[in-house]
Design goal:
Helix 2 crosses helix 3. Strands 2-1-3-4-5-6-7 form a 7-stranded mixed beta sheet, sandwiched between helices. The longest helix is centred in the middle third of the chain and has 28 residues. It contains 15 helices and 7 strands. The chain is globular, with a radius of gyration of 24 Å. The protein is of the alpha/beta class.
Length: 363
């Protein structure tokens, strides 16, 4: 039903006030260092709840304001740098190409059909970024290294760090660093995202690159490659297997997902959304996340054993044993975890489980 004339006038006036307020907000942000997305959300969370406005709506406003400001960062850098992204036509490679080009850098792409031009594309580059699937990363590093100048900064952005970092250090004499962007390629900017940084050699050569990522609102977390890979076993591989298993179970059981959602809890809807997003990804990438290291395979095997042990208790209806398992785990969470976790909010969930349609499998 179309708006009445009086309502239409009120809507126009409301939009005018919103535009004026957004203009003020963008001006304030442009004149100062921006607080993080989490900080900005926390500041207004009670007001949003009181007004009945989903946090995801407000987060969209914050992201849009930040994206508006990105072009100003181009003036914060000295001369444009020469960058080559190996795998730059994959979705994650394209994201980094867009972000680097946006601030004035000259970005070239090297794909599998371009290796006859490798010397030209790699020898003059100040930064070479390796953005290829896990199973190809080390081989691509070895292949590219022979074309690099000793001053070229070499960096990979795959989700494992120990083997790629070792390969870069072994085959390239110049600056080396491993990065792991903790997000998918569908984001509009680095604002509110996390990037794990694993130093390798001559870290100062990457400072301009890290400053760019940080100035665009990302949080940098520094650790060793070994620490990263241990944590990713828990952060990535085992949750990945849980959702992979749930999806397979639902498909094999021929569950009517639509009907289940009509009578679902918020937690169930969230879980189904996460599983749906998982199975919208490239299957090669999803499987490689689970199989990337022996440690991941061992952890998944241990998790499967835990499922089997608990399932046996359910099968024999051992209520006391199940309660004991629950209470033991409850104590662990209370003692070890509660002090580190803030209450979950809708936007945090949305950020952590965005679809990640990585398709850079051409190298």
């Amino acid at each position: 039903m179309p708006l009445k004339s009086s309502d239409s006038d009120r809507l126009k006036k409301t939009d005018q006030r919103l535009i004026a307020l957004l203009s003020d907000r963008i001006s304030l942000l442009a004149a100062s260092e921006q607080p993080s997305l989490d900080e900005q959300l926390a500041d207004v969370a009670p007001l949003l709840a009181q007004a009945g406005i989903p946090e995801s709506v407000w987060a969209g406003v914050l992201n849009s304001c930040h994206t508006t400001l990105i072009p100003k960062y181009a003036t914060n850098h000295l001369a444009p740098r020469q960058i080559t992204i190996i795998g730059g036509r994959g979705r994650m490679g394209r994201l980094f190409k867009e972000q680097l080009s946006l601030v004035g850098h000259n970005v070239s792409v090297l794909e599998h059909e371009d290796w006859e031009y490798a010397e030209k594309l790699l020898s003059q580059a100040e930064l070479v970024l390796v953005s290829v699937p896990i199973e190809h990363t080390v081989d691509v590093i070895k292949r590219a290294a022979k074309y690099l100048a000793p001053t070229t900064a070499l960096c990979d952005i795959t989700s494992i760090k120990t083997q790629p970092t070792q390969a870069m250090l072994e085959h390239h004499s110049g600056p080396v660093m491993g990065l792991h962007p903790m997000f998918g390629p569908n984001i509009e900017s680095f604002f509110g995202q996390k990037v794990v940084v694993c130093p390798g050699r001559n870290d100062d050569s990457f400072q301009w690159f890290l400053d760019l990522i940080k100035s665009n609102g990302a949080e940098l977390i520094t650790c060793t490659p070994e620490e990263h890979d241990r944590m990713m076993t828990i952060v990535q591989a085992t949750p990945h297997f849980c959702r992979f298993s749930l999806g397979v179970f639902l498909a094999q059981s021929r569950i009517d997902i639509g009907q289940s959602l009509t009578m679902s809890t918020p937690n169930y809807r969230q879980e189904i959304d996460i599983v749906k997003r998982l199975f919208s990804q490239n299957p090669h990438l999803c499987v490689d996340i689970m199989l990337a290291t022996e440690e991941r395979c061992d952890a998944i095997s241990f998790l499967a054993d835990t499922y089997s042990r608990l399932a046996r208790l359910v099968a024999i209806k051992d209520r006391d044993a199940l309660i004991q398992e629950f209470e033991n785990t409850q104590s662990f969470f209370e003692d070890k975890i509660n002090t580190f976790l803030q209450p979950l909010n809708a936007m945090a969930i949305q950020r952590d489980f965005q679809p990640q349609m990585h398709t850079n499998i051409s190298i």
